[in-house]
Write a structure and sequence with these properties.
Radius of gyration of chain A: 22 Å
Number of domains of chain A: 1
Largest sheet of chain A: 2 strands, antiparallel
Helix content of chain B: 55-70%
Strand content of chain B: under 5%
Shape of chain A: globular
Oligomer: heterodimer
Number of helices of chain B: 5
Radius of gyration of chain B: 24 Å
Structural class of chain A: mainly alpha
Number of strands of chain A: 2
Number of strands of chain B: 0
Order of helices and strands of chain B: HHHHH
Chain lengths: 497, 157
């Protein structure tokens, strides 16, 4: 009951002409940047963050919601037509979708992706609507040690899931935590790792790190390894409408993908990678057209795309209710909240009900806009894919320096952008996963706060984390996730070459 | 000592050194308030220890790692050019302004990807810079530095 009236109020906020306009601008920009090859949703949100800087928080987050969903849609277009998944969640879509595009069925692949994303996005947003208030109820009961354990779990899953090497994953995570610790200690005002540089006292901005690691790092990596060789853009021919058979083969994967994506997106399980892989293998097992998998099976696009979008909505539940990001993109959204001095969590639902419910309502609206933008207008986005690489990456560099400079208006951030971009380049060369670094940066200050709060309550007794059931269980789970692959490797004793 | 994956071992060493440096710096953070159960140096110490251990782990993994992917051939000239452009932008954006620096960055980026049409790309970059500046300074009320244009154009917002 309460939820329904809150949502109705949210629609009243989101459906004002001005906010509808911001939502439309958001989904358009999100799609336009998200469609660029190699640029995933996380980078898109980070690059577009400055665009919202001049707005009031409610309009800004309505626009953000549009950018967030738009980036997911745009990302799938690039994956299908160019085979350049911008992040792990789009890999499965690229697999079958690009195979469909090469067989001349790119239009149908785009259509099932767009409609599937709409179906999954809408159902999962409804899930978010009802789950978030329920999560808030739980969130109020959690203590500081529980929050600490929850964040440790979130970092452990991301580090263990992404990449093959635990050592490199942990190194990336701790580098992120170190970057997050730069500046004044919020509790005592002590300067840490700032080396007397004024601009560093406020800390290193998340936008700078995200844009540096993802956009600049990727640009340098492509420049050094591939140069300007043009990509093969899959042609979009014929009618966009899916045949009766396409529909019949798509609707069940959409629903199954949603059912997999939403819950897994909402728990700390490393974002959209696991649900999309699960959905893909499930569809392959259930399909009556197994032989088509690998050569462009429509189920293999419909399921993972739905799972991807549903997990994006799922990730918003713990973000809004607990302040806990479970994916990279959610982590950047958390940074956006911090930019406005807002702290997602149970209090936000009380203190900023307009904003929270306006944002949730605008997710429904944005989904409708996106369906319209992506079905009839997809040929416009396809044109963006044919921008020559030199201009594309030069443009990305310009957007990166724009995003970085406009956050604080100081030139030191551009030096940081260079340094962090170079670090992202080296990390890509060595094969160090990038995502744990970003999560460490964003969660670092929060986790330190909960850690010190816990220890202050327990008067310095570290056993506080293992004597309470919730935090003890979460920490044990985190330890299992980190250690399980390593242990199994030791016991499996590979034969030496 | 046989290392299967030298880049990974090097990265591990760098992480190890960084960890040691962080541990050293963490010791120098003043902690003197009796009423703080845990001071500002505790978390940095954990980070330093974590960096050191993950560096060691990476070095260990690099020695025994089974699946080594060959590193692609790397051309560092484009990287140097793009880096130089970013640093020049950082140094001169205040005095020269957003528009010329965007022109330079776009030119360097396109050059780094093998497009050698200098005049055309500089032109595109300048136009892009001007369009962004107009949208941001006059539309959104943020200020990107105008540089010498400051004296010529009407004040924003």
């Amino acid at each position: 009951m309460d939820t329904i009236s809150a949502l109705t109020h949210g629609f009243a906020v989101a459906a004002t002409p001005v906010n509808l306009l911001w939502s439309l601008i958001g989904v358009t920009l999100g799609t336009a940047i998200g469609v660029l090859p190699g640029i995933g949703p996380a980078t898109t949100v980070a690059l577009l963050m400055p665009v919202t800087l001049g707005l009031d928080p409610t309009s800004a987050f309505i626009m953000f919601a549009g950018i967030y969903y738009g980036a997911q849609y745009g990302g799938s277009t690039a994956s299908i037509l160019l085979n350049t998944p911008g992040e792990a969640g789009a890999m499965m879509t690229a697999l079958e979708g690009n195979a469909m595009a090469r067989r001349g069925r790119g239009a149908q692949a785009l259509a099932t992706a767009a409609i599937g994303s709409f179906v999954a996005g809408t159902i999962a947003t409804a899930g978010l609507t009802f789950m978030a208030p329920w999560l808030v109820e739980i969130a109020i009961k959690l203590t500081a040690p529980d929050y600490f354990a929850l964040m440790v779990l979130s970092m452990a899953t991301v580090t263990a899931v992404i990449g093959k090497s635990l050592g490199l994953g942990l190194a990336s995570l701790f580098i992120g935590l170190l970057l997050g610790a730069v500046g004044l200690d919020p509790q005592t005002g002590q300067e840490r790792f700032a080396f007397g540089v004024m601009e560093l006292l406020d800390g290193i901005d998340t936008v700078v790190v995200a844009v540096g690691l993802f956009a600049v790092g990727e640009t340098l990596y492509v420049a050094a390894t591939e140069g300007g060789k043009p990509d093969q853009v899959g042609a979009v021919r014929g009618s966009f409408w899916m045949s009766r058979e396409d529909w019949a083969r798509s609707w069940k994967p959409w629903l199954r993908g949603t059912a997999i994506g939403f819950p897994i997106g909402a728990i700390p399980a490393g974002g959209s990678e696991i649900p999309t892989i699960l959905s893909y293998s499930l569809e392959r097992r259930l399909s009556r057209h197994k032989d088509e998998f690998g050569r462009g099976a429509i189920e293999g696009v419909a399921g993972p795309e739905a799972a991807n979008n549903a997990s994006a909505a799922g990730a918003l539940s713990p973000l809004l209710a607990l302040g806990l990001p479970t994916s990279t993109t959610a982590a950047i959204l958390l940074a956006a909240f911090q930019q406005y001095g807002l702290r997602p969590g149970p209090m936000l639902f009380q203190s900023n009900a307009d904003l929270v419910w306006g944002l949730i309502a605008s997710l429904y609206i944005g989904n409708v806009f996106l369906l319209i933008l992506n079905l009839p207008l997809v040929s416009i986005w396809v044109k963006l894919l044919s921008i020559p690489k030199p201009w594309l990456y030069a443009g990305i560099l310009v957007l990166a320096s724009l995003g970085t400079y406009s956050v604080n208006g100081n030139a030191i951030d551009l030096v940081l952008l260079w340094g962090i971009g170079l670090m992202g380049f080296v990390m890509r060369l060595v094969g160090v996963p990038i995502v744990p670094c970003l999560l460490g940066l964003i969660l670092g200050p929060l986790i330190e706060q909960q850690l010190r709060r816990s220890l202050a309550i327990s008067q310095g007794d570290w056993s506080v984390f293992v004597t309470q059931p919730v935090s003890a269980a979460l920490l044990a789970l985190a330890a299992c996730i980190l250690l399980a692959p390593a242990l199994s490797r030791v016991f499996r004793k590979s034969p030496s070459i | 000592m046989f290392v299967r994956n030298p880049p990974k071992a090097l990265f591990g060493c760098a992480t190890l050194l960084l960890g040691a440096a962080v541990l050293f710096l963490a010791r120098k953070i003043p902690v003197g308030f009796g009423y703080d159960v845990v001071g500002p140096a505790m978390f940095p110490t954990i980070i330093g220890a974590g960096l050191t251990l993950s560096g060691l782990l990476a070095i260990f993994e690099a020695r025994v790692n089974e699946d080594v992917e060959a590193m692609p051939p790397v051309d560092l000239l484009p990287v140097a050019i793009i880096c130089a452009a970013l640093l020049i932008e950082a140094a001169a954006i205040r005095s020269v302004g957003w528009i010329p620096m965007t022109g330079l960055l776009f030119l360097a980026g396109a050059w780094g990807f093998g497009d050698r049409r200098i005049a055309l790309n500089l032109g595109i970059g300048l136009a892009m810079g001007a369009a962004i500046l107009a949208a941001f300074d006059y539309g959104l009320g943020l200020d990107l530095p105008l540089g010498p244009l400051d004296a010529l154009l009407p004040p924003a917002g």
